[in-house]
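Hi P.,

Sorry for the delay on this. The queue was packed all week, but I finally got your sequence through. Input first:
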Amino acid sequence: MQDGDWEGSMSTASKERSRPRKGVPPSGAEQRLTELGIELPAPPEPFGAYAEAVQTGNLLFVSGMLPTEGRESRVTGRVGAELNVEEGRAAARLAALNALAVVREHLGSLDRVTRVVRLGVSIATSGDVRDQPKIADAASELLQDVFGKNKNPCRLVYGVASLPLGTPVELELIFEVSA
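Then the structure:
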C-alpha cells in the first residue's frame, strides 16, 4: 500500500487525524482505529445455535452481525416505517463495529485482515424504500476507514421484511486473513 491509498473515502476530520507522515507508511487497522478514536464494543455472543466467526484456510466468515449491545438490540424497527435513513445508517455502523469486534476476538488483531472480500447487508424496510444502498454505505465507509479503500469488498444489499430481534440491519462478511 502506498501513502494515501486508504485516505480517499475518509472525512476531512478523519484525514487530518490520521494522515501518514512523509516517509512513514500508513498504519495498520489497529492503529487506524486508535487514530479515528474508535473503541470497539465487546464482541456480541450468538443469539442462536451458530458460530459468529468460522475460519477455513485464509478466509474468515462472519455472520449474524446485528446492531446490538450485550444481549439487547440497540435499534429496532424498519426503515421507512419506524426509522429514517440516518437511523438505519447508525444501525449499520453499529453492526459493522460489532463485526470488527468479533474479527479481533477471533484473530487477535485486525492487522491480520489482508482483504475484505464480501459484505452482505440485509435491511428491514417498508415496501416503498429504495435507499438501501445509502444505509449499507455506513458499514462500507467504516470498513474503508479501518482497512483502506484498496481493500473494499464486493457487496450485496437486500431489502427484507423482518430481521432477528426486530433490528433494521444484519451484516455478513468474508475476510481474507494472514496466517
